[in-house]
């Protein structure tokens, strides 16, 4: 692909240029001309000789010189033949604005597939179809039907929504935010977010990559590329479609709890992508990254001219898991000698309502010079004697002396508009309320920590794959894609999970004999490929203390099953020695279509069924990632020994998550797994799989 021809062409042809101001072809040509593009511009329309003062050509092939970029705005059925002309002409960059392809139906999808094959075979870099176009402010190129070209700046924006780009352009123009690129991906037929990430990483004008995405087509590839890019440039993504609506119905607990968004959240965390919750949040984060250095730690100092907003900011920072900097004695001494007697030299530093710009500047200078401060937030409220413009100028001047991030929170609007204008012009991020500033700072600290993170190391365990291969092959040959407890436990046993000793009894005499051999108390569970929810029909009995109870339970269970599930294939009854004590947790896996196996951890019982207190992580998982999953549950403290109780074996849970991660990657035939419950003993006692089920894919 020739990304340079797309972003920095020397010549542009607008195929479908129009003299009708109501048509897209006219808007695109007008934008290219009035955007100040300095290369050759070739309108193409066989019906007219001139449009907007430019000579018009009847065909792309009639243009005498080379064409770097072709912008196509013609009827859908003419697009593919025009792309063939692009091949003949040697065009290497194409933007297809025309709609009516993959988003419309099978006929459109087939046309789109043919376009994709054509451009890939001939080394053409194609955006779209069904897109707004492309804008490169640094190159004075506005090859779109969007708004006027923006200020050049350090933020590269890619979006699946063209309409969102036009809204963002308007907001950014008001806030003096500049862009390196604004690209509408459209249907992503040949050029998607992965390709843009790879190329914007190399773009010297792009300091931050921001994106609005509705989906990610190549999940595994996205993670690999994003992880590499994030080590050099921040990647901030606003991902829509966060609710579970539309997610496929799943047979397992894990599948039903995973929802539509958990895989994206895990993928972003894994690859260092910063997630935004709204357009406002996207701007808040991107501008902080674009215009300020990264903090070296999480200690934040606050200077304010009002006590209330200072307290609000302290609360916001604490809620964002940031640390209010504890000022050293030397710093406090300097502040005390500078400030009025009624002012506060503690953090937040209150310079009082009558503080002028000079006093603000002196306090800022002292705080930024302190080794006890990693970053600074400056609050200003518009009081009668406040000089917002002078204060803003002092913030600008002092902040340039230090390699520490400074964010501003000028709370107000019209009265302090001059100060806000100075901040924006001088690239000091400005936030209207404390919470927005705190969240932006949180993301800067998190990203700074991510960049310091060591390379991931995934542990591999010695296992026995042969029983797993045999079990899966046998099940698929029988057309049985839901593997019940007995066979599921055999698979887990091969991967060295701790499975309680058990035997499959087909008669009451076997049940009694096996129970005597295993030792009491006994758990008894029906074994049938047609009965997955065993307890619902009386297929589970626990706490059996002697042979007589085993005999009665066996006969009653068989009677109930025959009555409630007369057509079920019953293979027998699983006799297991009961696992006593311990804390019930659930481990599971569900296959995400974009990102692959996503593992789940949560506490069992009410914590799963009612509170849904679970966390997710994409395979493969490192030990640190497993531990992070466990720690991020609300009920984690119950495992650590709350209220004087003995702690549970968290290390055993980590080990089981790692083994589960290896199993599902080794066998892509596995679609879903539930280990529910996994009973975890106290520290050092390990964990045992009490119940398990596996669902195989029908597509492999």
3D structure, described in words:
Among the domains are: 293-452, 3-Layer(aba) Sandwich (Rossmann fold); 466-577, 2-Layer Sandwich (Dna Ligase, domain 1), CATH 3.30.1490.20; 583-696, ATP-grasp fold, B domain (D-amino Acid Aminotransferase, Chain A, domain 1), CATH 3.30.470.20. With 700 residues, the chain is of the alpha/beta class. α11 (307-319) runs parallel beside α16, α12 runs antiparallel to α13 (357-369) and α14 packs parallel to α15. α7 links the parallel β12 and β13. It has a 7-stranded mixed sheet, sandwiched between helices. Strands 20, 25, 26, 27, 28, 29 and 30 form a 7-stranded antiparallel sheet that branches. The longest helix has 19 residues, at 434-452. It is built from 24 helices and 30 strands. The protein is 39% helix and 21% strand.
Q: Descriptors for this entry?
A:
700 residues, alpha/beta, Rossmann fold, Dna Ligase, domain 1, D-amino Acid Aminotransferase, Chain A, domain 1, 7-stranded mixed β-sheet
CATH superfamily of one domain: Succinyl-CoA synthetase domains
Oligomer: single chain
**Spans with pLDDT under 50 lasting ≥5 residues?**
245-258
Q: Give the integer mean of the pLDDT values.
A: 93
Distance between the termini: 33 Å
- SS class: alpha/beta
Number of helices: 24
Largest sheet: 7 strands, mixed
Give the percentage of residues in beta strands: 15-25%
CATH topology of one domain: Rossmann fold
Radius of gyration: 32 Å
Helix content: 25-40%
Q: What is shown here, in short?
A:
The chain is 39% helix and 21% strand. The chain is of the alpha/beta class. Among the domains are: 293-452, Rossmann fold, CATH 3.40.50.261; 466-577, ATP-grasp fold, A domain (Dna Ligase, domain 1, 2-Layer Sandwich); 583-696, D-amino Acid Aminotransferase, Chain A, domain 1, CATH 3.30.470.20.
